[in-house]
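[Solved] Which block belongs to which protein?

Original post:
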Amino acid sequence: MAAFNRLTEATYEVHESVKVDTQDNEDHTFCGIMFPIKCKDLLPVDHISIRSVAVRGELGPLTVWVSKEKKQNNNNNNNNAATHVFRLKKSHWHKVYEAVHPPSPHEYKQLLLNEPIILKPGQVRALYIHSTLPNDRAIVYDNAAFYMPRRLIHFGHGHHQNNNNNQNNNNNNNNQDERKPRYEDPMIAIYSGRAHVSTAIFGQEPIWGWGNAWRDHREFVGQLHYGAVYQLWNPDRNVLTKFGPKFNEALFNLKLCQTRWESPISRLPDECIYYILNMCRWDWFQDTPNIMHQKRSQQRAKLKREEMERKRQKQADIEAAARLQDATKQEATTNNNKTDSGPIFDDAMEEEGAQQERAEQEHDDDDDDDDDVHSTQLVGEEGENNNGQEDEEAALRQAWIRRQFDRINVLRALARAQDDEDMEADDNDMDIVF
């Protein structure tokens, strides 16, 4: 039965085709441009497929390269790293286009790729367009100097130390500006990259023979043609969270109708309802990119509040544990002082007893009534001493019990703090920064 065999992604190769036009200030020309592209994780997209790219300039022998997908393992997800490093070596790149073109300085020339570039949600890959034409007018690109600093994506190694120093000098209030892309829509984001001033592919020697062959803060000028393959709805928690509130509201209403015997939908089993929703696109119930963005913002705000509350509780537990430790030490010091004063108190009692014995020997001739009164007084003093000893033992027991509870509370606080640190480490591993 088809209802039991729901697809997870659309069978259509491309649901939508989008042409990306970047700003063109006619700023610079040279041999090549390299820039990163990110597939945004906003809409329920299974992947996007970049089919072609368009550039202008003197052109000539052109090649288009894409960075190879980085190997992933369970312990390290490269797509979720804080920064993305693209090596400037041919072995780390895959060629997807090669052809010779006549000059086209004013109109974009479309380069239909030999194979599409696939990007999964959250994935970042770099595109490198280069011409071996022996002059500095091959490819038009733009200068991003007026928008610096905003790039935290590194190309190669050893050429971006100054960028790192500039980034360290920026305060946290500029993070939003640094994350601003060159171009973005609900599905992709294009960031600033590097211009190449060498006629050799991935060459490290510029056209004039000295200096650095790569120029930072340069931006792509042209067009991208890509298609989106949407993810299909399924009753899975990881899928449910990617669809909009109106889609989930439609699901809720269908389930309500299923519980009413007078509704024809009540005759349908769950599998049929799930199959119907599986065939519905994410925006068929009036969900829009703006609504999805609001949903994502609310989710991030909720996570931020939970994180702040967790940190506040962690700090409160640590302070409470410190107070309990101080109280325990103070009580232990007090009990030690009482224990140290014990021999002195015993010597005083012995001296007092000796004096009483001498007094009794001196008054052996007293009558029986005086002896009875004297004995009664001694018995009363001994009873008071016994009561004092019992109170002291009870206080020691209570102090010991308090110390045990203090130790338990301290251990609990430390365990909770360790759990929070582990959770923060996991979260930090899921953080992406541009």
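(Second protein starts here: sequence line, then its structure tokens.)
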Amino acid sequence: ATLTGSIGVITAKLLTSEAYHKVAANRFSLRRGKNADIYADSRPWRGEQRNKIEDAIETTYQAFKQRVVTGRRLSNERLEEVGGGRVWTGTQALENGLVDELGDFAVAVERACQLAGLPSDGSVAVRAVEFDKPRMPLSAKELGLKEPALSIPDLAEFAFAVLGRDWSALLGQDRIWLLADSLPRIRW
């Protein structure tokens, strides 16, 4: 059984002021332009910044909806009828024009091979490539610190371990994400 659901667009911003306060670390930043710090982790978005973020999310969402309208050959009205947060079974999604056919991953690979002009006789090797999922360190040991309590010399090491590596890996440089758990790797 399959489920087909509407999409959404999200963004996130970590706020770290309390974490810095707990380790007695002070920060100072310089910025140029009133929104240069829009993703700074020291405070929530101000009104104008929140509006910019919401506009970016809405622009991304509208672009996706336009691609669906074009790709699925649906009217905007029909997309609103079948979209809008609704979830459908595979059969319902087929009836509503949201999918071309029913099938599992193997069926999708076979169809992709046909569309790409590749042999669909099983000679194309496909394997899922899973992403390492970044996570925040949980302990001083995982942070690479010598002791559980932070001493003054460990503050710089802590800042690099938490802010320099793991949080930047978690957030990346992108502001709005479209996420997948894995990607297929195809060899022929």
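Accepted answer:
You had them paired correctly. Confirming on the second one: The longest strand covers residues 125-130.
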